[in-house]
Amino acid sequence: MYKTSGRHSSGSETVNERKGAYLDWRRSRRLSCQTFLLDQVGMSERFDCAGCKESLYGRKFIQAEDGAPHCIPCYNKVFTHACAECKELIQHNARELCYDDRHYHEQCLRCSRCGRSLADERFTRHGTALLCNACFCSEFSSTCVACSKTIQPGSRKLEYQGRTWHEACFVCLGCQQPIGGKAFVPDDDGHYCGPCYENKFAPRCTRCKQVLVTGGVTYRDEAWHRHCFVCAGCGVELAGKQFTTEEDSPYCVQCFTNTYARKCEGCSEPVTGFGEGKFVSFEERHWHQTCFACSRCSASLLGVGFFPEDDLILCRDCSTLS
Questions:
Q1: CA 297 → CA 260, 265, 304, 307, 312, distances in Å?
Q2: How many Cα atoms occupy the beta-carbon half-sphere of 75 within 13 Å?
Q3: Measured distance CA(305)–CA(287) in Å, rounded
Q4: Is 44's pLDDT higher than 70?
Q5: For 172-188, how does the pLDDT look when each residue is reduced to its tens digit (9 = 90+)?
Q6: Of 64, 235, 249, 276, which residue is 20 to 30 A from 102 by alpha carbon distance?
Q7: pTM for the whole structure
């Protein structure tokens, strides 16, 4: 967006200076425009126009940057610009507007749509056309989703999924602060900044109660940091390892085996359910599946009937021999 402002310069050259997103018209120097009378300066001293060489006594003149005096017609011919719109010279005493290295009469710099003068007005270039602020907003500006007001050309805006907001209107549903260029998380009702979303929706670790930002493990529908999900015995992390629970506390294989595992009636080794697979239990007694066999003939008793006899377990054949 741009804005032009200007003022008449009597006997002076007008130049433009770009300042931010605006054009500001200022005098770069004051040119002298004086009238000399014959009785003020002796006739023997010549004072001629640097262009046409005619005497400047009794005539108005303008002194150029190099100090050389010029009569008004010569100055206009040599130093003034042609208007980009009407192609006429912009006289030394007229207000001259300059935009994009092109020069205009004040009345010639106009909106391409409504024709209003752009002097002292904000305007925007759209392609090759110059549009006043009202015309540009009417045809091309977006409307803010939050406040329903037009987003003025040149103002900061944010776009997401085909919708547009003023930067100040795109705020977090939690803290109500502008999100700006920060990361955000969309929700059905709006948007949350990262911290507010974490505080409201992110899962918390079952052990330390802090927010789980990335990673973590889930056990029994509960979330844990990886470094918080550890063996209750030795404290080693259990993520990605075999473990079991006892009284709702997780244990690694080694700690569970040393502390809670029962002994196999057949080989006296711990029965844990790890590695060797399933096991068999009968009247508070436990066997590895490979160890569950007849106490006399060592025939496997898996899937067949057996007969307990004191501390023994017997197959049908051995039972009949007793």
A1: 31, 16, 14, 13, 12
A2: 24
A3: 16
A4: no
A5: 988 999 988 888 888 88
A6: 64
A7: 0.36
